[in-house]
Structure formats: structure tokens, C-alpha cells
Amino acid sequence: MSRRIPVTASVSPAILGEKLKFSTSGRVARNRFLKAALTERVSTYVHGDPEKSGLPTPQLCNMYSKFSHGGFGMIFTGNIMVDKIHLEAAGNAIIDPSLNSPERREAFGNLAKAMKSDPEVLALAQLSNAGRQTPQFLCDEPISASDVQLMATRRGYGFGKPRPLKLEEIKPLVIDHFVFAAKFCKDAGFDGIEIHSAHGYLLAQFISETTNHRTDKYGGSLENRVRLNLEIFEAIRKEIPAETGFIIGIKMNSVEFQEKGLKCNEALVMCKEYERVGFDFIELSGGTIEKLAFSHLSDSTMAREAFFLEFAKEIRPQLTKTLVYLTGGFRTVPGMVKAIQDGVCDGVGIGRPITAEIDFPAKILSGKIQSALINPFDQDFAISNIASNTQMWQAQQTPYNSNVDINAGIMDMSNEKVEEHFRSAVQKYAEELVALAKTGKPLYGVFNYTPEQLCEKVAA
Ligand SMILES: Cc1cc2nc3c(=O)[nH]c(=O)nc-3n(C[C@H](O)[C@H](O)[C@H](O)COP(=O)(O)O)c2cc1C
């Protein structure tokens, strides 16, 4: 039996169906729903061979044509890496100037086409460089703002000590890569890009004093730490002017719960700068790999649903042109509607609930549901992250077919039997990851777990 998060009083979803107009590019999202970026880790990967790596596959396109029909106003890819070395994981899609080829252009063209299979949806590519958050098996000495090592493990793997980018390297190694990737995405048929400057990746490493100890024009004052993002924006806009209708947004942290991490008042100053230069939208998030924030860190945020709501509340009213999306924690229609009505955000970004139910927005807007399916792992990001990757992989196994349930083949963790079976399977998988990490061998892909495995078990 499927189970949903209980809602005490239903509310009309009408406000969520309102259009949003981006003031710089002039484009319009048909409603307030955003499919947040969710790394898929299933593009091609051949260890040590970037030419053969990072190509989106037909299976990935299967999933995105489903998301295209899920009822969203705007959908994002997972992080596409703009540097062939500094990946977030093996299996990321990659666009790097040195890997330009007709084959790569065709693969990304197919991805954009799949995302636009409902042409009314805005399809954006999220562009990123992992910097010091590049797993060590991919790079021993990654680039960063400074030489502050990430002392954490992810899926069992650690991270190397980074080297600070030299001043003269910032343009060729960072800015030019983002510009190249943005143009590549435009040519491929995407409606725009989102620059990933959240969650501790390279651009966030420049923003946060925890990781930026520079003394040149990219370090020290807030004005200096935000400079790189502004330069990237301006360099892209120079090549792709607003008149083209190409959307440019940014994902940023509203807060980092670390001693020297970004504070909300600093985030506000940055947002005003982003608005000044003309970003179409800002997507507010929070946390880093070192200090994850994708769960309720206090009881008080639980009632308000969205994790970063109290920070967004300070930021959104100060902006007049740039639209604000808030991502993280939205699970019910009353929670989303209240955030919009209170002026906390213009749009709602959704992550984990939509890997379980791709047509979550469509069902909400048609009045069928008021909340997400129960996710028993929602408060445990490590497991819910693996589970979401698995659900996305499951969705990739079949093409979109309007005659078939869009969620067919995706495990329903709200079902207690599924939960129980997946819980023990994922435990075993996590142990395998740790053992693999100890060998130093590369980790590629995600947990390929099928509901059939569950059926066999139940039948036995
Ligand atoms: C499987 C998975 C992959 C993610 N990958 C990305 C990513 O590539 N880029 C990004 O900005 N955030 C990524 N996130 C964070 C989500 O976009 C979102 O901010 C987070 O899950 C909180 O939203 P939720 O509570 O609705 O899941 C990922 C989250 C999950 C669960």
C-alpha cells in the first residue's frame, strides 16, 4: 500500500500553477514547480579516458522525457561538470572545451530534446566544477580557492588536499569553462543554465571563508569572494545576450552551518549583487558535504517544512527583479502554498519526492494529492540520496509512454514491505562501497536495485 504524508487541512494548489516571468531573459515558466538538480551518475565512464566519459546515454534521456511530462514549469539536469577532471562523481555528464566533438554534441542534443519532449517545459542544464569535493580516486590534488582539504568521506571515498588556483589560472580554467559549457548547452537546445554555487562545490569554495583564504581580488571581503560568480555571469552574457531568451540562474547557499561558513546576512548581500547584474533567478539551498543540511536540523524547522525557509524569508523581500526558488524539505501543498503566500519564495524546488513520483506536480495541480509519498529515509540524507539515485536509475530503464504509468518500475518506499527489503539491501550495498573504497578502485554508477528483486524475495 502506498502511504502519503498526512495533511491536516487541504488547501487549493491554484497559486502553485501561476506563471513566473524571468525579467532578464523574458522567458516564462508555466508554473512555480522546479525539478531540482539531482546528480544521476550514469553518463558513460571509462576510467582514465575523458574522451569516452561524460556522454549522456539514451537511458538518461528516457528519464528526462518522463520528467518533461511530470507537470513542472522548469526542469534541471543533475550537475554537468565543466571540467573533465573535477567531477562530483564518476558518471557525471561532462562538457569541457578539450572534449568538444560531434558525438558529445549529439548526446547532449538528445538530452535537451528529451527534456523538451513537452515543449512547454523550460529545460536547464546545471553547470558545476567540484573543486576540492572531487573524489580522491579521480584526482589527488584538485583545484580550489585555497588549500583547505575536505576532511570527510562520501560513499566511502575521501578527498585530496587541494591546490589554490593561481590568479592567472582563474580565467582559463574556470571562467572560460563555464562560458564554453553555457554556449554548448545553448547550441544543444537547452533554454538556459543554472550555475552551481552551493553545497561546497568550487564556486561555493570561493564564496565561503571556510575554504577561501585568498589575499588577492578573489579573497577577503564579501565583494571579492562573490567576484568570480559575477565575472562568470558577465562573460556568459557577453556571448549569449539576454535578447536570445537564454535563462541564467544560480544555486547558492543561504547559510552554511559552520563556524566560518556563509551567514544569511552575507547571502543577502550576494543576492543583491546577483540581481544587480541580471541573474534571472536564484535558487536558495544550504549546507556542504562537510556539514549537510538536507534534513531538519532543529524541531522548529520541521513545522515550517522547508529547511532554509527562515533564511529565504530575509532574502526574498529584498529582491524586486530576480526570482527566488527555494529548495529543500517541501513535502506538502499547504507547506508550499504558505511559503509562496508569505512571500518567502516565488517558486518551489523539489528533490527527493519526485524521484519516487515523477508526476508529483501534475498530480498536485490537478487536485489529486496534497502531499508526497512517505519516504522512510527522508531524515537520513546518505540513504535517501542512494535511494533517489536508485529510483532515477529505475525510471531510466523504460522510455516515456503516455499509455503507461509514468512511475512504473520505480520502487515505492512508502510501502512497508519495500522499505524493509530496500533497507537491508542498501545496508549491504553501503558495506560494499566501503570495501571498494578501501581498494582505491573507482566507483562508478549507482545502486542498481530493481523492484523485481523485491518481488522474488516476497514470493520466496
Ligand atoms: C540524489 C540526489 C542528487 C543531488 N544532486 C544534486 C546536484 O547535482 N546539484 C545540486 O545542486 N543539488 C543536488 N542535490 C540536492 C537537491 O537538488 C536538493 O537541493 C536537496 O535534495 C533538497 O531538496 P529535497 O529535500 O526536496 O530533496 C541532490 C540531491 C539528491 C537527493
From TrEMBL:
The keyword Phosphoprotein does not apply. Keywords: Flavoprotein, Oxidoreductase. The keyword Aminoacyl-tRNA synthetase does not apply. GO terms for molecular function: FMN binding; oxidoreductase activity. It comes from the Eukaryota. Residues 30-367 form the NADH:flavin oxidoreductase/NADH oxidase N-terminal domain. Pfam families: Oxidored_FMN. PANTHER family: BINDING OXIDOREDUCTASE, PUTATIVE (AFU_ORTHOLOGUE AFUA_2G08260)-RELATED, NADH:FLAVIN OXIDOREDUCTASE_NADH OXIDASE N-TERMINAL DOMAIN-CONTAINING PROTEIN. This is NADH:flavin oxidoreductase/NADH oxidase N-terminal domain-containing protein.
